[in-house]
Amino acid sequence: MTKIKVSNLQHKYPNGVIAVSNVNVEIEQGEQVSVVGQNGSGKTTLVKHWNGLLKPTQGNVFVGELDTLDHSVNILARKVGYVFQNPNHQIFAASVRDELEFGLINIGLDEEEVNSRTNRIAEEFGLVEYLETNPYRLGFSLRKTVGMASIIAMEPDVVVLDEPTTGQDYLGIKAIRTAIKKLKDQGKTVIVVSHDMPLVAEDTDRVLVMCDTELIFDGTPSKLFASKEILSKTNLLPPQITSFTQKVGLNIEGESVLSVEEAEKVL
Ligand SMILES: Nc1ncnc2c1ncn2[C@@H]1O[C@H](COP(=O)(O)OP(=O)(O)OP(=O)(O)O)[C@@H](O)[C@H]1O
Ligand SMILES: [Mg+2]
């Protein structure tokens, strides 16, 4: 069980840019959270604090009992796995197999367990035929899949996916949504940074909205898409089905219809 607790977080990069300011948030084990907001609003900077890739320049981040200021990524990554927005910043091994095995060896699993988990995860993510391939010979979306598989293989309590559906086609997005659902069923905390509003609306219970370094909304997708103020401030567009039901007056005050199935029920 790993709870994330962020208190008065500020992050200032060495060049002086303040990318996150005054963020307070707690995420319990098992929650499904999305993080949304415009380009450059601070989403990636915020979530990189949750496995210690970035350290607070003010305030604190606790991963379970561990203050991230006092622990290395190597320790924190056993609890919180972060899948990079850009797989080229994550992947470094010369074959898909080595990439999948690296984290498993690093967390101290024995050879047999490393092998069986590598084979299982490759099967699950459709990577078996690429195990001996250099990840740089794969297309962008498959490389993203390798990045995601290598983190999930370590079975951390919390999985953070930074823009997982960017650059993925319909089948890729479907596979990602299936993987998220499976993690949820296993009781993992899943945190998804995303511009993909149907994914935000249907696959998460709680949305954090970043705007110009600050956290300006923390609530359900239903409430978010009913808030004209937050939507206009951040240029977020609700899913098409939500816009449609709003236009024809099918929504309850302050809440939204989030899926075709829900729309069918209220009709
Ligand atoms: N390594 C860095 N050094 C200096 N400034 C940075 C660095 N990384 C990000 N920034 C700046 O910090 C701010 C927040 O960036 P961040 O990547 O966290 O935003 P984001 O919300 O994830 O954006 P996107 O939707 O484009 O991924 C931006 O102004 C960005 O230019
Ligand atoms: Mg980002």
Write structural notes for this entry.
The protein has eleven helices and ten strands. The chain has 267 residues and is of the alpha/beta class. The protein has a single domain, classed as Rossmann fold (3-Layer(aba) Sandwich), CATH 3.40.50.300. The strands form two sheets. It has a six-stranded mixed beta sheet with strand order 6-7-8-3-9-10. Strands 2-1-4-5 form a four-stranded antiparallel beta sheet. Helix 3 (96-106) packs across helix 4 (111-124). The radius of gyration is 19 Å and the shape is globular. The termini are far apart. Bound molecules: adenosine-5'-triphosphate and magnesium ion. Adenosine-5'-triphosphate binds next to helix 1.
List keywords for this structure.
267 residues; alpha/beta; Rossmann fold; 6-stranded mixed β-sheet; 4-stranded antiparallel β-sheet; 11 helices; 10 strands; globular; binds adenosine-5'-triphosphate; binds magnesium ion
Query: Which band does the percent of strand residues land in?
Result: 15-25%
- Overall structural class, as computed from helix and strand content, comes to alpha/beta
Domain tally:
1
What's the end-to-end separation, in Å? 41 Å
Please give the oligomerization state of what you see: single chain
Number of DSSP helical runs? 11
Shape: globular
Total count of strands: 10
Major beta sheet, strand line-up: 6-7-8-3-9-10
Give the SSE string: EEEHEEHEHHHEHEHEEHHHH
Helix content: 25-40%
Please state the second-level CATH architecture: 3-Layer(aba) Sandwich
- CATH superfamily membership, which one? P-loop containing nucleotide triphosphate hydrolases
What is the level 1 CATH name?
Alpha Beta
Under CATH, the topology is which?
A: Rossmann fold
Question: pLDDT under 50 segments (min length 5)?
Answer: none
C-alpha-based Rg, rounded: 19 Å
Enumerate the distinct ligands.
adenosine-5'-triphosphate, magnesium ion
Biggest sheet record: 6 strands, mixed
